[in-house]
Amino acid sequence: MFDLLKAADSANNIITLNSFLKQWSWRNGCGLVNFHAYSLLSVFNMTDTNNTNFGCLLIRNPWGEEPYYNTSFNSSSSRWTDSLVAQVPFGIDPRTSQRSDGIFVVPIELLGTCFQNFQIGHLRDDEGFVSTWYDKDDASSGTQIYHFSPGKIDDTLYFTTENYPLGVVPTVCTTGLFPYAMVAL
């Protein structure tokens, strides 16, 4: 898995991860918010003074903070040395960036423990691919059928869909109403 992610990262593909939803609770066993998306900033190796190699993922919570990540190489881990920190990409110090910027390091061995899946967005514009966006609002009732008639196809045709279970979409997005009342004091 590390080699696949490393190759995608080297190709400058966009990579995201989803936290593992093992049980209905606010945080999973790694201290990450359940059922939440994270950005994969970099896939890299670190080597300690004993020549032990660590395959690592540099991850960011888009909320800009991640104070509860609690496994290997968390911000308060005694494993961090100045030498290891110097090997983290972009000059990031994970001892301080976890709380201030939501950036933290996860060893590749914990990928399946902390995250349920990952997605790699392959950028193919330079190969002549184009993207067209079709959006249907309020398509919640019944089966939706879409027809597409492509022009001449002489190569691969890709489709993606985005579906959101109603419980995942915030109430304000579906009703325009906030789930709380504002009271003037």
Give structural notes:
Helix content is 16%, strand content 20%. The chain has 185 residues and is of the alpha+beta class. It has a domain at 2-119: Cathepsin B, Chain A (Alpha-Beta Complex), CATH 3.90.70. A five-stranded antiparallel sheet has the order 4-3-2-1-5. Strand 2 and strand 3 form a beta hairpin. The chain is globular.
**CATH architecture descriptor name of the domain at 2-119:** Alpha-Beta Complex
SS strand fraction: 15-25%
Task: Please give the count of helices.
Answer: 5
CATH class of the domain at 2-119: Alpha Beta
Radius of gyration: 20 Å
CATH superfamily of the domain at 2-119: Cysteine proteinases
And the CATH topology of the domain at 2-119? Cathepsin B, Chain A
The SSE string, one letter per element, is: HEEEHHEHEH
**What structural class do the secondary elements suggest?**
alpha+beta
Which consecutive residue ranges, at least 5 long each, have pLDDT under 50? 178-185
Main β-sheet description: 5 strands, antiparallel
Question: Main sheet: which strands, in order across?
Answer: 4-3-2-1-5
Question: What is the straight-line distance between the termini?
Answer: 55 Å
Task: Using brief descriptors, characterize the structure shown.
single chain; 185 residues; alpha+beta; Cathepsin B, Chain A; 5 strands; disordered C terminus
Topology:
Layout: H1 2-10, E1 14-19, E2 37-47, E3 53-60, H2 82-85, H3 94-100, E4 103-107, H4 111-114, E5 115-121, H5 171-175
Antiparallel strand pairs: 1-2, 1-5, 2-3, 3-4
Brief write-up:
The protein contains 5 helices and 5 strands; from the N terminus they run H-E-E-E-H-H-E-H-E-H. Helix content is about 15%, strand content about 20%. The longest helix has 9 residues, at about 1-10.
